[in-house]
User: What shape does this take?
Amino acid sequence: MKAALALLAATALTGCASARVHANPQDAFFAAITAHCGKAYAGRIASDQEADADMRGTAMVMHVRSCTPDRIEIPFHIEGLGPDGGWDRSRTWVITRTMTGLRLKHDHRHADGSKDELTMYGGDTKDVGTSARQTFPVDAESIALFTRTGRSVSNTNIWSVETTPDGYTYGLNREGRDFRVTFDYRQPVSPPPAPWGW
Assistant: This one.
């Protein structure tokens, strides 16, 4: 009888622990994006600032290209901004788990595959966010990089990623800056070629 009660208690505790894991908004957020692994979606610029005029009306594609339990790689392709007016395949958003939350980094490459001077910048979450939206304030490593390369204006960047049943939105905000691109999960497209250098 005692053995049966002990087993029942252990099972109940395991169930509670499992429920806590799945109740974590960051786990749900990570799983929601991972559910689209291997798929690509058409997108567009959703913000309206003069700084992004060259992107207005251009074709965009995000590709949830690679997923592991701790890392998601999402190349962001833009038509017309690459060499000779072709596709720009220089950007990859990298979302990883850390000991304290989630991290967003930006991997930038040149067409020959070499790393851009400005690469692997981003930030870490400061709170649990929600299952649909996570924000990533700029980290110290990125502030040092921005300062060293004469881009101190970016030292207050806050990036955001949203995922809902309908789509995915990437954003960048700081004083005077609002950049957003959205992708429609209802508009899947053929996966594009690999991003530069991958």
Q: What stands out?
A: Confidence is low (pLDDT under 50) at residues 3-22. The longest strand covers residues 177-189.
